[in-house]
Amino acid sequence: MHAKPELKPKVSFSKVSTLFVYETGETPKSYSKRDQDFFGVEALREALRVKELIAQSPPESTKESLRFLLKNRSLAIEEMVGIENAILGQGTHTIKKLHAKTVLQEQRGQREHPEDAAENMARVARESSLKSLLRARACAVFAART
Q1: What is the DSSP letter of 31?
Q2: pTM of the model
Q3: pLDDT digits over 63-103, tens only?
Q4: Any idea what DSSP says for residue 6?
Q5: CA-CA distance, 136 to 94, in Å (whole number)?
């Protein structure tokens, strides 16, 4: 049995890479916990405002209420970006969790059957992502029609 030579990790850079050095200064480069909490409260407040608008609009269904509010310019599509889960429920979050669970299950299965692992992983991820893709397309079509 031959011993394999130990490979040391190395990093290489492309010849066309460019290095940019930024001064760090005194200004922090990320939001503090206090800022994050403030943004979270503001997002929740905005989601509740939009939900109230939806509840008070004439049509019965949420979908028709949103269409009505957007058509009558009582609500802009930009106001819903980032808070859609809080407005419409946890649908997107659930889809993402299910996708992660599906991919991780496939990854565990690859330990038992390592042959064709990359192809199988790609297939499972692609099929699982299709649900999110279809949902995103439906949202885009809905936004374009209003």
Answers
A1: -
A2: 0.43
A3: 788 788 888 888 777 777 766 666 666 566 677 777 788 88
A4: P
A5: 14
Helices 33-56 and 62-71: crossing angle, nearest 10°?
100
| Unique residue bearing structure tokens 């936004």 | 143
Contacts of 50 (CB under 8 A, 6+ apart): 75, 79, 80, 83, 87
Write the DSSP symbol of residue 32. -
Contact yes or no for 95/129 (Cβ under 8 A): no
**How far apart are alpha carbons 113 and 80 in whole angstroms?**
44
Using alpha carbons, select from 41, 43, 63 the residue that is nearest to residue 141. Answer: 63
Q: Which among 87, 42, 81, 83 has a CA at the least distance from the CA of 62?
A: 87
